[in-house]
Design goal:
The protein has about 180 residues and is α/β, with parallel strands linked by helices. The chain has helices spanning about 15-25, 55-60, 85, 100-110, 120-130, 135-145, 165-180, and strands at about 5-10, 30-35, 35-40, 50, 70, 75-80, 90-95, 110-120, 155-160. It has 2 domains: about 5-35 and about 90-180, P-loop containing nucleotide triphosphate hydrolases (Rossmann fold), CATH 3.40.50.300; about 35-80, Guanylate Kinase phosphate binding domain, CATH 3.30.63.10. A hairpin with a 2-residue loop joins β5 and β6 (about 75-80). The chain binds adenosine-5'-triphosphate and 1,5-di-O-phosphono-alpha-D-ribofuranose. InterPro entries: GK/Ca_channel_bsu (IPR008145), P-loop_NTPase (IPR027417), PhnN (IPR012699). Catalyzes the phosphorylation of ribose 1,5-bisphosphate to 5-phospho-D-ribosyl alpha-1-diphosphate (PRPP). Keywords: ATP-binding, Nucleotide-binding, Transferase.
């Protein structure tokens, strides 16, 4: 049985990573979401994640609880290694990663692919403002990272524009996955 691939969903804040991941999982039960550990209050909403204090995060990291961890936006993010139960029967595991950890992730998770989402700058700004999860200053800081490039050396990567309707993006991703598995 071939191992279950991990697909990193990446792109600038507001591009729609969590929305696309949730919509993909809703369309195809074989696409499952890896639950992240973040030093963000769980009541912030959005993706289903485990919110912990910085102290709890550091204890988990020091105990080897994360296959991958990083800092961004003043937060700490940790990815536990998917369990056999999480992988059993899955077509792929989707995970929201920082663009800055992709080469490390490519060594940790095998097989591994990257789904890079893009959107026009004005779309990003409008979406962050409408979502209202961050204050205006944090929105501006996040928009400042929008142009961060993907690293050289990724073995499998596809870029899809999510400026338009979410359903169009989901169809494009599913069509690509279909072609890949054909
Ligand atoms: N294709 C789309 N059309 C319209 N609205 C969208 C689309 N994709 C996402 N959104 C909306 O844009 C906002 C940002 O989406 P989401 O939170 O999924 O982005 P993200 O990349 O996970 O952001 P962050 O990195 O800041 O968590 C949300 O309010 C979401 O509902
Ligand atoms: O700009 P880059 O480093 O690609 O991503 C920065 C952070 O934003 C996303 O998390 P979230 O959407 O804030 O939960 C990523 O997972 C990363 O942690």
């Amino acid at each position: 049985m071939s191992p279950v691939p991990v697909i990193a969903v990446v792109g600038p804040s507001g591009v729609g990573k969590d929305s696309v991941m949730a919509a993909l999982a809703a369309r195809d039960p074989g696409l499952r979401l890896i639950r992240r550990v973040i030093t963000r209050p769980e009541e912030a909403g959005g993706e289903p994640f485990t919110g912990v204090s910085p102290q709890e995060f550091e204890a988990m990291r020091a105990a080897g609880g994360f296959a991958l961890s990083w800092q961004a936006h003043g937060l700490s993010y940790g990815i536990p290694m998917p369990s056999d139960a999480e992988r059993a029967g899955a077509r792929a595991l989707l995970v929201n990663l920082s663009r800055g950890v992709l080469l490390r992730a490519q060594e940790v998770f095998r097989p591994f692919a990257v789904l890079s989402l893009t959107a026009r700058p004005e779309v990003l700004a409008a979406r962050l403002a409408a979502r209202g999860r961050e204050d205006v200053a944090d929105q501006a800081r996040r928009l400042g990272r929008a142009d961060m490039a993907l690293p050289e050396g990724l073995r499998r990567e596809i870029t899809i524009d999510n400026s338009g309707p979410l359903d169009d993006t989901v169809e494009a991703v599913l069509a690509h996955l279909q072609r890949e598995s054909a």
